[in-house]
Specification:
With 276 residues, the protein is mainly alpha-helical. It contains nine helices and two strands. A hairpin with a 2-residue loop joins strand 1 and strand 2.
Amino acid sequence: MNEPPLKSAILGEFLGTALLILLGNGVVASVVLLDKQADWIVITTGWGLAVMLGVYLSGRLSGGHINPAVTLALAVRGQLPWARVPVYWAAQVAGAFAGAMIVYVDYAEAFRAFEAANGITRGLLVEGRLQDPAAGGAGVFFTAPAFDVTWRSVFSEVLGTAVLLVGIRALSDRRNAQFRDYFEPMLVGLLVFAIGLSLGGLTGYAINPARDFGPRLAAAIVGWGPAAFQTHDWYFWVPIVGPFLGGIVGVFVYDLVVHPNLPSMEEPTPPGSIVS
């Protein structure tokens, strides 16, 4: 497998993740700050399209990971040299940070109006949490749990990311789904849309460490300060650890259960033949 030049890989992961966050955080900002409806459907649709366009942008440059959990999972199964993992991660987090900062600049007046209308003091913790609604507006940038049961939040992130990686492997495995390359990013976007609709409500379905950490860092810099990491009892580690574990689980499930039982590429779809 030929790896893309390192410069192209860094550029692709940075730009693809930046576009992902620009559009993903942007749709959340529209719903939360400007009250654009209809809430969860709009948000999950926006994130699905954001993933699709981010992969389209970065696919030929870097492989279109735009997610440290995907990068780690591919390295674990030998599809990416380990030396490239920290480089990909750095580009992804930097891209996520940049995308979130652009969203903040674009929506700065909406943030201020939202805080004034709801009596919110930016960065103020009340009983260990940023003020409602939407974590005082910081929920535009990062995820938070619906319930304060940490292990269940970890499980939800592991599950969502495992489904993501099983789906990605199924879509990219030429022995399974022989789609033309052009359609794969679209189908990955639909996969993320489905995960958001079905599994995302409990934690906000980060399923991507960079997607949460980069914007959380941006939120800390633009006024939420340490509270961006302290809120919800230092929840910030869950959308980092959960997706990493889930990505590894997902590729192992696919590689151990599905891939060995697939027919060869020469077999028709569905496999088998009718003997007259």
